[in-house]
Amino acid sequence: MLIPDGKSVFELIIKKSHFIAETSPVESPEAARLMLKQRRLEHPDAAHVVHAFITGDDRQYMGMSDDGEPSGTSGKPALEVLKGRGITNIMLTIVRYYGGTKLGTGGLVKAYSESAAGSLDRLKTRELIKYRAFTVSADYHFYQPLKAIIIEHDCRINNEDFGTAVDIDGYVPVSQAEEFIEAVREASSARAGIIVSSDILQV
């Protein structure tokens, strides 16, 4: 499963109608609705601000709107493009400034589909990985072996504190959490303290 790694913008002009497609990361339907309001504020003179979104670890939340375009000609094709890319936690808005010439039903579907695809083609993505937060505390001579274990298990380090002992805070992929705990205990002869949260996070 993929998620956005940033934003993207794609512009298309067809028969003087100007389409501006923007993709952004969002984590909930509520966040998508807030972003839609922001887009409308940014483009007060636009004829339409069409949108489509998908959120949830299993892509269980989806939504779209034609925003005044003929039913099924804009929001639905945009959502279909999103669904076809295997991506989640994404909001797509397509702003249209009317150029004075009607595009027809088929023309609208083509224009909105191409706008959606163009924006997604420019979007950088990364794999959706679920993490658990961890804290490791150990004597200084365990630092290098523990750092190697952290790297080996694809962990992400959030903070390192070098006080009377070394404290490392970070995130371990859920799929590697148990192996990570065992590796830390083995490398430190069970002398390193390790706490791994049961909460699952997306970092």
Please, could you describe this protein's structure?
By secondary structure, this protein is an alpha+beta fold. It folds into two domains: 2-127, Ribosomal Protein S5, domain 2 (2-Layer Sandwich); 130-202, Alpha-Beta Plaits. It has five helices and twelve strands. The chain has helices at 29-42, 75-84, 104-121, 143-152, 177-187; strands spanning 2-4, 8-14, 17-25, 48-55, 61-65, 90-97, 125-127, 130-138, 156-162, 166-173, 193-196, 201-202. Strands 2-3-6-4-5 form a five-stranded antiparallel sheet, sandwiched between helices. The longest helix is centred in the middle third of the chain and has 18 residues, at 104-121. The two termini are 14 Å apart. The mean pLDDT is 96.
